[in-house]
Design goal:
Helix content: 25-40%
Strand order of the largest sheet: 5-4-1-12-13-14
CATH architecture of the largest domain: 3-Layer(aba) Sandwich
Number of helices: 9
Radius of gyration: 19 Å
Order of helices and strands: EEEHEHEHEHEHEEEHEHEHEEH
Bound molecules: magnesium ion
Distance between the termini: 20 Å
Structural class: alpha/beta
CATH superfamily of the largest domain: HAD superfamily/HAD-like
CATH class of the largest domain: Alpha Beta
Number of domains: 2
CATH topology of the largest domain: Rossmann fold
Strand content: 15-25%
């Protein structure tokens, strides 16, 4: 395998487990920065603004800037602005709305309906408003910030984004553009952000389907780490990772080994 030119690091399960950093992850990010390897820190989280994630990483000794955090909202902002899909009607919490800096926000003449995790702010009138915007114009795009079905809130399991998106899909017969793992558009937009072809990127994740399978489906390579949610039987699910690492801490060695084999291949091909 030739060496990739950019890296997407999944956050939860790769860099940290919840509130606990994974051993060696701070050193790996410091190494990647020193080596000037282009990278993004990727998460499907829609509930935390990027600055909150940056603060969390910094508390773990990991230097990061908001510009390096890749979330569904950030991807959607780029996806919409790149295509000139404007204005957009947002169905997201205020913290998430702040990420849409390159898009005109308006219900009036909306060319996109963006659905995120509104949580307890959902009610019939709100969901019906989204429906009416889509119904009014068949060209209006339905954009989903991930397709997470539910999450564990402090009071118990709670509906996330997907059930509301599915309701709108069902009512309109429209396809949803999903910006979140494992959707192709999410990885395509990350490649656009890094300015690299998808084939030059490696996604490192702990979820064999969403991270590795999703990345491979979009033309990236995918490495699995044996941390976070990883279970040994994940390797028998029909997704073949391009690399298997005990943890993200093994990444620099893997990278250097691939680099060396690149060089020897070049030598063999051009004696
Ligand atoms: Mg993960």
């Amino acid at each position: 395998m030739s060496r990739p030119h950019g890296i997407l690091f999944d956050l939860d399960g790769v860099i940290y487990n919840g509130e606990t950093p994974i051993e060696g992850s701070a050193e790996v990010i410091a190494w990647v920065r020193r080596e000037r390897i282009p990278y993004l820190l990727v998460t499907n989280t829609t509930s935390q603004p990027r600055q909150t994630l940056v603060n969390k990483l910094q508390s773990m000794g990991i230097a990061a800037s908001t510009n390096e955090i890749w979330t569904p909202a950030v991807a959607a902002n780029l996806w919409l602005s790149e295509r000139g899909v404007s204005p957009a009607a947002l169905f997201v919490p205020p913290e998430t709305a702040a990420e849409f800096q390159d898009v005109v926000i308006s219900d009036e003449g909306a060319k996109a309906v963006v659905v995120g995790d509104l949580g307890s702010s959902w009610d019939f009138a709100t969901l019906n408003r989204a429906f009416r915007l889509l119904h009014a114009d068949t060209e209006t795009q339905l954009v989903a910030l991930g397709m997470t079905r539910y999450w564990m809130s402090p009071t118990g399991p709670s509906l996330d984004v997907a059930p509301f998106v599915v309701a709108l899909v069902h009512a309109t017969g429209r396809r949803a553009v999903v910006l979140g793992k494992p959707s192709r558009e999410f990885f395509d937009a990350a490649a656009l952000k890094l300015g690299l072809p998808a084939a030059d990127l490696l996604m490192i994740g702990d979820d064999i389907r969403a991270d590795v399978g999703g990345a491979q489906g979009a033309g990236l390579r995918g490495a699995i780490v044996k941390t976070g949610k990883f279970r040994p039987e994940d390797l028998e699910q029909g997704v073949q990772p391009d690399a298997v690492l005990n943890s993200v801490a093994d990444f620099p060695d893997w990278w250097l080994t691939v680099a060396r084999s690149d060089e020897s291949n070049t030598y063999e091909n051009n004696p």
